[in-house]
Amino acid sequence: MIGTYEIVSIVLSILILAGIKLMSSPKTAVLGNRIGAMAMLAAVIMVLTYNGIIDVPLLWLAIFVGGVTGYIMAMRVKMIQMPQMVALLNGLGGGASALVALVEIFERYKQMTLFGRLTGQLALAVGAVTFSGSLIAAAKLDRRISQRPIILKNHGHISNTVLLLIILLIITASAANISGMGFITIITAFLALAYGVLFAIRVGGADMPITISLLNSFSGLAGAICGFTIEDPLLVTVGAIVGASGLILTQIMCGAMNRSLVDILSGSQLNSGINKKEATAQERVIDVEKPPATAKKSPAEILKTAEKVVIVPGYGMAIAQAQSQVKALYDTLESQGKEVKFAIHPVAGRMPGHMNVLLAEVDVPYEKLCEMDAINPEFAETDVVLVVGACDVINPAANTAEGTPIYGMPVLEVDKAKSVIVCNLDTKPGYSGVDNSLYELPHVHLLLGNAADTVKELIESIK
Questions:
Q1: What's the CA gap between 343 and 328, in Å, rounded?
Q2: Partner of 406 for a Cys bridge, out of 230, 310, 384, 398, CB 3.0 to 4.6 A?
Q3: Residue 291: pLDDT band by 50, 70, 90 thresholds?
């Protein structure tokens, strides 16, 4: 018979699902966040009450310290630092699940059922992988370690797969053996932490959005498995919701990158570096179709006479903190009666929705943000495309440069526009290491330098 605890758990789970649904649109995301946060707070209080420990002072002290720390971090973090903060919070979620599983294993492993022992070891492993992998991702995003893929000696997808199989073998074997669990548990935790590091350290910039969403899924999965260990249906449900939503997002990102999730899980990363074969393939890049050359006009003149403008933001905009200037340019163009839209590539930036967050920060209307599939057919009728800090996601070589890391990746087809203005820092390749053939086209105008400065100069020129 379903008791009060189970009924309230169902209600809270529905509220969390409703919050996630509202988060799918920037217009309702704030409300969704608030509903989710309040539901989680209610869940915490209910769990403490149900277990008869709500009056333990140490727990409330921990809640207070954690709440204040989270508030300070949220208020102080800059939008450009949001990806690394998301990665860090993913890691803390996985680490919390691993600690709970660790306590359960050491306190009552002999009293557990076979299923409980199995889920306990599995929760420890998944939580540890999430913790170490997320810390590496956060360090890469914060430039504490190299953002490019780090390939260790004899470190490939085969070695990663072998290590993963060893971890699963140890977990399976230990579930049937209740002796010597202290040593086996330490080995499991150590190998899982190592796998998280080896998995994430191979990731470069282009794969980072997929990796973050995958780690988010892992944190929910760790929580759900841990819920089975401690026999708490609410934790199982909430963890499953987070895990499933993260996995769905990961699949969407994989589709946008034309990547296989199996490749990522096995450590076969997109940005694995360009070897000699790939370099030779780059030399064989087929030239993209070039529009007929026209009389050269300055970028300001082109923008003045344009009727339809599409702005393409990228990670360079985040680095330059140029979103305010981009919004000012948008306002100026709109005031002149021009049609202005934003083209958002699904993996532009370093986390899912990174560009949407930055543009929402400066109040760019949500209806002006267009997804790749919706905007690509419009480029042929677009007078001007303004690229602000984007490279790989607009590189036409993705369609022609066989053997390179970005080959086959869907890109924004900005080369089809009548004119293109590129406000990038330089013409160096993006994280893929593939030269951008867009820069060589006759209808492309390069305004190199800090995007915040070059966009500001454009505004002054067209006013």
A1: 17
A2: 398
A3: very low
- Mean pLDDT value across residues 396-421: 86
Q: Which of 207, 232, 392, 435 is catalytic?
A: 392
> Annotated catalytic, 392?
yes
Q: Is the dihedral of CA 230, 235, 237, 243 positive or negative?
A: negative
Is residue 423 within 8 A of residue 451, CB to CB? The reply is yes
Contacts of 5 (CB under 8 A, 6+ apart): 46, 50, 234
Residue listed under structure tokens 């030239």: 287
Give me the residue label for tokens 């190299």.
Answer: 146
Nearest-angstrom CA–CA distance, 351 and 206: 10
Judge contact between 462 and 447, C-beta under 8 A: no
- At 282 the pLDDT is 41
**Which of 306, 289, 290 lies closest to 298 in space, CA to CA?**
306
Residue 136 binned pLDDT confidence (cut-offs 50, 70, 90) = very high
Q: Is the pTM of this model over 0.85?
A: no
Structure tokens that stand for 348 in this block: 């532009």
How confident is the model at residue 276, as a pLDDT? 37
- Mean pLDDT (the chain) is 84
pLDDT at 12 over 80: yes
Q: What are the pLDDT digits (tens) for 355-391?
A: 888 898 898 988 899 989 899 999 999 999 999 999 9
